[in-house]
Specification:
6-stranded mixed sheet; 8-stranded mixed sheet; 11 helices; alpha/beta; globular
């Protein structure tokens, strides 16, 4: 509970009370999708859905913060009726942020086009996968490997492999994704940071996915931008995730949460470790840190 003096003027993050009484701060739940919001079947469980609805009905906000493209987030945005409850979608690790009620893009950053030939040569030399995304199309530089196919299947994308990859990609890129076996991906990530670190952000989301993002873009930085837009503060946030790309927001959150199924580095960065995504871990997080009794 906070007093009226702690409220931001003109924002949604306090409840008007009677004169002389304290007011209640509203919370913002920024939640990763895969391995966090959804179970292994890629579904939001009934218990998790009900807990999310309860918190939104109390005026708290939900932000879906995912490395997925916009297309891959839409199903869950609709299921949770985020347009009705004033929610937001942070797609592409936050390179594209959408206000669900209006459908408006409130923030976006793109990779420099001149970086693509360099990424193509690197992937060709190292024998790893490379894709970028436009709408519901995953554009693959090479014959799609099992990880490229997995990413497309999860997000409902159609994979195309043009003869001239760099010539085909004449659109703005929110991100590129490289794929490799987990045993190699860590070394490739380190090598790419040395080679491209002054032009792009490079980090893994899963052990086999290497995200190449616009400089300065990760979930933590993007959520900071969105909080400014919302007139809110990091102290108001509960951030939940399981992957490497969730660490940046978990570390800055008012409460940083890792799922029990999270990578070890993610659990180490968190304030609290919740039960896993197949055990309705988010329900415990919502009940403990967000819902007002």
């Amino acid at each position: 509970m906070y007093t009226a003096a702690c409220c931001f003027e003109g924002t949604d993050f306090c409840v008007e009370g009677q004169r002389g009484k304290s007011v209640m701060r509203k919370k913002i739940l920024a939640v990763d999708i895969d391995g966090t919001l959804v179970n292994s079947a890629k579904d939001i469980s009934p218990a998790t859905s009900a807990a999310l609805r309860r918190m939104m009905e109390q005026g708290h906000k939900v932000i879906l913060a995912s490395g997925r493209p916009v297309t891959g987030v839409r199903r869950y945005e609709r299921e949770l009726a985020l347009d009705r409850y004033g929610g937001y979608v942070m797609a592409f690790n936050g390179a594209c942020i959408l206000q669900c009620e209006s459908g408006r893009t409130v923030y976006e950053r793109m990779l420099p086009g001149e970086l693509l030939p360099e990424l193509y040569r690197f992937a060709q030399e190292r024998g790893c996968g490379l894709v970028t995304i436009k709408g519901d199309i995953s554009v693959s530089a090479f014959v799609p490997d099992k990880y490229v196919k997995l990413e497309a299947r999860i997000n409902g994308l159609t994979v195309v492999q043009p003869q001239d990859f760099t010539g085909y990609v004449d659109f703005g890129m929110y991100k590129c994704l490289m794929t490799a076996e987990p045993a190699r991906a860590g070394e490739l990530e380190r090598e790419m940071r040395l080679r491209f670190g002054d032009k792009a952000e490079v980090y893994r989301s899963d052990p086999y996915f290497i995200e190449v993002m616009p400089l300065g873009v990760d979930k933590g930085a993007a959520l900071g931008k969105l909080l400014e837009i919302m007139g809110a503060d990091w102290a108001d946030t509960v951030c939940c995730g399981d992957g490497y790309n969730d660490i940046s927001m978990i570390r800055q959150a008012g409460v940083g949460v890792a799922m029990a199924n999270a990578q070890p580095e993610v659990r180490e960065a968190a304030d609290f470790v919740a039960p896993g995504n197949d055990d309705d871990g988010l329900v415990q997080v919502i009940n403990r840190f967000i819902l007002q009794n």
